[in-house]
Write a structure and sequence with these properties.
Radius of gyration: 21 Å
Order of helices and strands: HHHHH
Number of strands: 0
Number of domains: 1
Strand content: under 5%
Shape: flat
Helix content: 55-70%
CATH superfamily: 23S rRNA-intervening sequence
Distance between the termini: 76 Å
Number of helices: 5
CATH topology: de novo design (two linked rop proteins)
Amino acid sequence: MAEQGFENLEFYQDSLKLVKAAYRFASELPDYERYNLADQLRRAACSVALNIAEGYGRYHYLERLRFMYIARGSLAETYSAFTIAKTVGYCTDEQVQWIRALREQIEKQLNGYCRFIRSQQQGGTEYGTKYISEEQVLYDLSQSLVPNPQSQEE
């Protein structure tokens, strides 16, 4: 029997194609875009694959869904970065069309996987159907942690 894992999910494999395309394209951008568009594009594309993997590794279905939703948001962000690149003249219509088709394919499969996760509700019986969260922490913002140089005597 073949071992199951996130690596075998078709939309995860497609997300790796997106990462490869993003890195290849980012390396071709002008140097002055290194810490702007190129960096954002690489991080967004990696976020798609990384959140799919992390969500797959979670037990409770609501946690799994949360990471899949983050992956879906990062997918839109990656596509937007390519659209911006086209708008400012860094890439062609054909490149954006290829990315759009890949995005639509990943998104369709990701949405199907989310429907599957919701239908299974793994962990719902043991832990309930509410999001798992930590206790609320209240922060005292009445006192500044940064000293005010004007209030200090010289």
